[in-house]
Amino acid sequence: MVKVWWRLRLGLLIAASLLLQGCASLKGPDPTDPLEPLNRKVTAFNDMADDVVLRPVAVIYGQVLPTVVRKGIGNFFSNQSDVMSFFNSLAQLKLQAAAKSAMRVGINTTLGLGGIIDWATELKIDKHKEDFGQTMAFWGVSSGPYVVLPFFGPSTIRDSLGLFIDNKTDVNQQLKDAAAKNMLTLLRLTDKRERYLSLSDAVKQASLDPYTFTRDAYLQKRLNDIYDGNPPMLDDFEDPDQPAPMVAPNRPSATGNQEPLPQTPKP
Predict the structure, then answer these.
(1) Model-level pTM?
(2) Structural domain total, the chain
(3) Mean pLDDT per 10-residue run, the chain (267 residues)?
(4) Range of the domain at 146
């Protein structure tokens, strides 16, 4: 009798689980991702390109180069990103963050052999990551829908424009030597992919739907980046039934306090 009861209970649990999944599938498309069918196709293309080219190259890169060499390469590109963070911090009126980025660039470029050695972190000078997408968000530009870019991956309409501007103004893009420019671009891409090998493998293994997991994680991270680690709670938005916009009614000021925007941006 006990066995029959547990079998019946297990059957009811399975049926309830299937019913809940069915209800979830009947729910309309995610309002933040109206381009989901197209995005999934681009994601499949990116996954194929990664499996065939990027991941194998990154694996070899990690196996051939010693850790200390890879760390130096990562520091070199991190130092370049501090240059962009400096200008974007200024554009967002974050004067303290801009000053720290300038100090990091100055110290690491001179004492750190062009940025290969990260002395600034050893001196407890915090790194602030700011990009043009965050700058546009600061000034009230809404994110637009979620998109997946070929080769570049998760983004939004606003962040896609920000990525284009960041790439055009990147330090490496100012080089006259096309061969050197392309080599540095490929090296940066390979180094970044190698650092995310374990994470990408974990996502594929642990997620029932890696696409949804990646999308939600990206949007949440961008919201966290825009608000410097202090994103507003859901209650701060007018309609809890609607998804929280990437740019909320209030924005972080240069002092870290919340300043009202001229108008509430639309998601």
Answers:
(1) 0.77
(2) 1
(3) 42 39 49 95 97 97 98 98 98 98 98 97 97 98 97 97 96 92 96 93 84 96 94 60 41 46 39
(4) 49-260
